[in-house]
Amino acid sequence: MREVTGAQDLVDSLLNAGDKLVVVDFFSPGCGGCKALHPKICQLAEMNPDVQFLQVNYEQHKSMCYSLNVHVLPFFRFYRGAQGKVCSFSCTNATIKKFKDALAKHSPDRCSLSPTKGLEEKELLALSANRDLSFTYTLKSVPVPEQEAAVPEPAPSHPNSDTQLPLPLGGLPSAQESKEKRTLVNSGR
């Protein structure tokens, strides 16, 4: 079991794990549940050498944990290759079966031809936006396919007129939106 030193270390560890299952244990040295569960997690780590276990000390990395929406301890996230995060949950000694079940479900040997995913893009952006962390992430640009000679459609015309009316920026409201507006108007809101 290895302790994560910061946001970049976490991101790199997940990306470098390949298809290996990675369990991230968010803990606090002052958390009674974390202390009680730690020996069992260490035992499971020894019994599963093909699984990479990482620990994130909440007290040392509060800002990073906040950016990753970790607010309850002990908390676990399981990551696997191209799938990225496969599950996340909190558990205690009383609910250790949840941890064992997740480990059994996601541990089987599998191979993916896709690149390793690691953290979700929104999590990477949250870490990057956090000024307390020295982590930078650049949004991946997605190529926009060129449209073939798009011909603009004429704007709809008013039924009693020969002139065309411009569409509002959002386009015409859907039947559902129109019904909702009528309902709101009819109910006096």
UniProtKB/TrEMBL annotation:
Region (Disordered): 146-189
Keyword list, A-Z: Redox-active center
Limits of the Thioredoxin domain: 1-108
GO cellular component: chloroplast
Pfam families the record matches: Thioredoxin
Coiled coil: none
Family: Belongs to the thioredoxin family.
Name listed for the protein in its UniProt record: Thioredoxin domain-containing protein
Species of provenance: Punica granatum (Pomegranate)
